[in-house]
Amino acid sequence: MSLDLEWNVTIGGLDTNTDFTDRVAGINIKQPLGFMQPSAHLVTITLNNFDGALTPGAGGTYSSVAWFQQAVFISCTINTTDTAQVFHGIIDDFDIRDDGVTSIVTLTASDWLSIGARGLYGNDFSNSTSYDWTEWANRIIDTFTLQGVPSGETSLPKLDQDLGVYRGFVGDVSYYAAGTVTTGYKGNAGDSLGDVLIARHQAGVPSVIWPTTIDKWTYLGNDWARYDAAIVGDTLSRTDANATTFVFTEGTPASGELPVNAIDRGYDIERVINQATISSSFTTNTVEANNSDSTSTTGIKSLFAADSSMLLDTDTQRMADNIVERFSNIHFQARKISVQSATLADTNSGSKEELAQLLDVRYGLWQNATVTYTPTAGTQVTDNCLIAGRTIQAVPGRTTITLDLLPAQDYQSFVLDSDTLGVLDTNRLG
Description:
Low-confidence stretches: 147-152
Number of helices: 8
Largest sheet: 14 strands, mixed
Distance between the termini: 42 Å
Shape: globular
């Protein structure tokens, strides 16, 4: 009747890689979700190097590894059966501390989307093909891996695959929540892929894009390294097969529920937006929206998006109105919760699938969650939340998972027959 976590850290390629788990002294995983802006995930891994095998140029087993061309795969297995892919990325830094007696290596890995975003465009470009937001988002992410930079090169390693990187294209549009606006594609020579392709495409559109996994992909009989991402359009509520609601509770959770060790509850005034100004880079027009009731009580909390890629002023205005309508309110609710492995050891083993899904980068983020607890001298409260990021700290024998939460009533839309998102006069129809 417990949930046991077993971490695994593998470094290398997709066909040939090395299990470094026995060397791991600690893992720190930061995976925030950028709302209307890029999401940047960062991992630090501390490795024991007491045998000198990792010391560059010292003749050890790994002394000549080209570290910055290696992928990092971090997974966690629950009760030996359910495995979550927690983080996939590329090594971005290598630091060694060696006093002649002890030696510690710290590897830093960034998500592939952040690394791919560093590439620069060599020419001005513009494409006003009227795709919906999610299809353009998918096509844009494809350019990170195969196109868009001078001579067709990419900032991403092909790992140990012979034919470079590939993500799928026409006929392989994937997303977790749909978009309702039409957008284009525009930038200038010298612009970075990240600034143009993510920041501009998300400007003024309630949306989230985050990197997920790196997998082997077979296409037309050839093997490629495939870099994948999750795409959430302005409808905001996940409609994919893995959409779920996690249930967190104090005390002893029932099967299918997860425990809470600590709750940070408070007002969320820092996320209020009651005034929006959005400009389209295609029509060059600017639209505005304002909630005077909110500005008079909390002051002006403004959003300015200067280079939105939306093609129609009607869409631009609709998004500005949507932003102000959704995000003008202040809520008092759970903002962060933490779960510790010591508590999971006493959690019903019937919750192992839920824990594995929570830890998986594809399935545990931008999901609904209910948090039930009893405040001091009060009655039991249940907050309806959205998981909008996480930090995971793991050392041998101890894991702490901290979740960043947002109010579901603002960041989700109405879902028919849902106990948490189908409440009239509470959940938004759009």
